[in-house]
Amino acid sequence: MSARLPLISTTERRSRLGRRHRLAPSARATTVAEAADSVVALHATDAATVFLSTRARLAEGGPGMVEQALYDDVRLVRLLSMRNTLFAVSTELAPYVDASIARAIAVKERRTFLKHLDEDGQGLDAEWLARAEASALDTLDTRGPLTGSQLSAAVPALRQKITLGRGKKYEAQQGVATRVIRLLAADGRIRRDRPRGSWTSSQFRWVHTAPWPAVPAAEARAEIARLWLHAYGPATEADLKWWTGWTLTDVRKALSAVGPDQVRLDDGSTALVSPGDTAPEPAPEPWAALLPALDPTGMGWADRGFHLDAAHRSALFDYAGNIGPTVWWNGEIVGGWAQRPDGEIVWRLLTDAGRTAEKAITAEASRLAAWVGDARVTPRFRTPLERELVA
């Protein structure tokens, strides 16, 4: 039965990465939002990742172009979303990410915090929290943008402390400011503005903003599944479940609404693509890419075997499964890179990719060094190869 399905080979899957993830030079984006949309969302736990992932996909423009999209034009925003992790998405896509994922996270976060307030026994409740949030928003309106510490200093309620695990071995006191700010951000009532320091800093200032327009959750999940299949297909139900963090039921309903086509892979297994997306993908020109830690192209599937040799995994991932900085050649991870304290970009191949590849990778490393300039980038999640290269 599967033999009758259209075949999408590993080579063709890698060609799709070059074109659809805008990594081949001829496919690079002209805007930051276009670069983000090409992979649906950019991982944003590490502030530098948003910039470096965008850089790899832009035809031209420096860090200032990304800053303008994030903070001036607000064409790109950070949302707590997939897998309860921070991602950056275009403002056009944000309502769908919010409705399909972020809303449920926000509800759960608020329920958990209210439970902690109740267990603390100081009489802090939902009404107290509402007043604290209103005070924080009023302060941002009159004095913002403010960092979390500045906002806490200006709002007395945010200096409140509660006790977690009272009477237990792990009993600890915790300030409420970070939790309240996280709730406001999860609800879409505040957003991250320019940080203190350079583009590599995570000390963000906060501004008051309006929540995203309401979209029915089922409609939003279907739209996210459709966009994800175009960017990451061929892929499986398990891949989409991992990437989104949805329940299996929600994944299946979303895919049913999209109506994907089934295709055959080189190993004889089957996978899904967008409806009608079975035609051969023209191979782009040979391309090299230096992608940052947590880049979506390295983290887009639960099963990454088509672009990653399993033997290289231990060098390129940390203990928790976070990918480090990677070197790519024609859709395959062939090594890793790092920036040394003096600013030098260094890289190492884990497989013999040939002289043409080495020449292209050297050129791409030079392009990266020029783009980063005087900034220094250290991944939040350190991997064995990245540490070795820095040392």
UniProtKB/TrEMBL annotation:
InterPro entries: AlkZ-like (IPR009351). It holds the Pfam family AlkZ-like. It comes from the Bacteria. This is Winged helix DNA-binding domain-containing protein. It comes from Streptomyces virginiae (Streptomyces cinnamonensis).
